[in-house]
Each structure stands twice: as structure tokens, then as C-alpha cells.
Amino acid sequence: MPTGGHLEQSDGTSWMAMYALNLMRISLELARHRKIYADMSTKFFEHFLYIASAMAGMGGKGLWDEADQFFYDNLKLPHHEGIKLKVRSMVGLIPLFAVEILDDEILKELPEFSERLNWFLNHNPHLAGLVSHWGEKGMGDKHLLSLLRGHRMKKILLRMLDETEFLSKYGIRALSKFHEKNPYHFYVDGQTLTVDYTPGESTTDLFGGNSNWRGPIWMPVNYMIITSLSKFHQYYGPEFKVEHPVGSGNYMDLDEVSKELSMRLTKLFLKDEYNKRPFLGTNDLLQNDPYFNNYIQFYEYFHGDTGRGAGASHQTGWTGLIAKLIQN
Asked: What are the protein's GO molecular function terms (predicted)?
């Protein structure tokens, strides 16, 4: 870092926790055919716990901020215990992605994995306490592996499903709209560094002018949010409800929330009440010309307020995920 020290990242750490759980799931499926992979499953389970432990201890108090009820990055400076960078961004939502569901069937089918897992938890109680509800079976005798307990998840969703913060008419913004009127300022070496809500194209040349993380709607992380909520629902079931949108008085279970978010993303491409496709913005030719208006482009990201497509118009590799959401 230019300031010295290093950055303890909520998003980077959560990605690695998710990665460990993904590899655990893959190795468990392989172990059904070749038992040797059960050892690898245990290894990845242990890695997940060690990553969760690191996340809980970063900055001395972890990356979770009790006052704001949100995850933040922590800037660890020389001779300083750390400064939480209180930017309400996708950084604080990505811990949702580290979630996996295991049912009793696979634990019975692979007793070696189950025995080693329980041995490890019994001999490492400080790590066992980090596994959310592992010993408590959820819907359909399922077990939950997650960085988040239900209380923290609800607190994160309280911001994510708030239309004055992350929730847009067309999906989840990468940065809270809160920062539109409340930019985050960081002061260092006589400079003021600012993060504000930028719903469309970047206003700076940083990172090549890429503003995916500064306010727009970005399809791949929206897709991950939706699939993660679906996984949580498999454990918590229909009794676990959250208000959506916040302030509406309307309560939904997590599966219903995931489907409603999918619909918001789908609306980017559908014609609205004015017979316009939001992703085409105010481009009259593309909106109205019969030779253009039914050809769908897969933009890199979308304006956090209007849904207008921005960045490259050919990012089928990730924006094409909309097809999967429509299919579901």
C-alpha cells in the first residue's frame, strides 16, 4: 500500500472461503465414486474453517463492524491496529457467497468424511464455533456451512434489500446509493481520497476507467447473490423471512427473494410500460428501429438507477447468465 502496511479484504477472504467450499463439494461428489477423494473433502473443509478464523480475527476484531452491522475491509498500517474502510460496497455482501449445504444422505454415504469432520470439530472448538449451525439440522435434515449466522445475514440483507442503498429497480448495485449524498473520504499524506456512488460510467481513470464496483449493476455478482440465497433457503426453509423491499411491510422467504431479484434483472431486457427496453437507454435507433430493437446486447454492467447498458456491449460470458436466471 502507498501508506505502508496492507489491506485485509472482506471480499478476497470471502472468495477464498467460497472456493474452499466449492472444492469440498466437488471432492465429495468424486468421493461417491472413488473413496480416496474423501480425504480431500476433509482438507477443504479445514481450509474453510481456517479462512473463517482469519476473517474473524483480522484487524484484531475481525472484519464485521458491530456498530454498522456490515463487513468492511481493514487497512492495517504500520504501528496501528487497523482502520476499517467504511464503504458500503459489494465487499460487504460477498461473505454471503461462502455457503454450502450438506444433507444427511451424503454424510451417511461417506462415513470416513463424516468421522474426520466431527473429529476435527471436537478437537478444534475455537474453529467449530465459526461454523454456522453445523450441529443443528435445517429443512430436510440438511447441514449448513457458512461464514454467516442467521442474525448477521439478516443484518446484511437489511441493507442489500433497501432501495435507498443497494436495491435497484433492476438488481443489486455494487455500491450503496447511500454514498451518493454521503461520499466516503480517506485522508492520507495531505490527500483526500473519495469513494462516491457512480451508477454508470466511471468518473476517474482508475483501473482503466472500470466502475463495476462503484455503483452499477453487475450481472455475475448478482447471480452469485441469487444462488447463495437459494442455498440458504434450502437450510432455513419457508419460515425464515425478511422484509423485501425494506420498509414495504412485505415479508418473503429467501427463495422468494431470490426469484424476485431474478425478475428485477430480467426487466433490464424486457420492454417496459413505455415499450422500451431499459438496457437500451435513450438510444432512439436501438429502441425503435425494427432492425435493431429485438437484438439483445449483453453489456458489461448496467446503470444502477436507470438500467442502461454501459461498458462493453459484448460481455456474453457473464451477462449471459441472465439466460440461466430466466430458465430457473
From this structure: Glc3Man9GlcNAc2 oligosaccharide glucosidase activity
- Angle, CA 232 vertex, CA 130 and CA 150 arms, to 5°: 50
Residue in 130, 90, 50, 129 with CA at minimum distance from that of residue 228: 90
Kindly list the averaged pLDDT for each block of 10 residues, start to end, along the chain of length 328: 79 96 96 92 94 80 91 85 89 96 91 89 83 78 90 95 98 96 88 88 68 87 97 95 97 98 97 94 93 90 95 84 89
Domain coordinates in residue numbering, the chain: 6-160
DSSP string, 271-312: --TTS--GGGTT-HHHHH-TTTTT---B-SEE-TTT--EES-
249: phi then psi, degrees, rounded to nearest 5: 80, 5
Which residues are registered as beta bridge partners of 102?
Answer: 143
Q: Where are the alpha helices (DSSP H) in 175-253?
A: 178-181, 219-236
**Using N-to-C axis directions, what is the helix angle for 254-266 and 219-236, rounded to 10°?**
160
> Residues 99, 105, 106, CA angle at the centre, nearest 5°?
60
Rounded-to-integer distance, Cα 68 and Cα 31, Å: 42
Q: Is the dihedral of CA 143, 31, 129, 132 positive or negative?
A: negative
What is the length of the chain? 328
Contact 325, 265 (CB under 8 A): yes
Looking up cell 490527500 gives 191
Q: Judge contact between 30 and 96, C-beta under 8 A.
A: no
> Cα–chain-centroid distance for residue 273?
31
Cα distances from 99 to residues 18, 48, 133, 328, in angstroms, run 7, 10, 12, 20
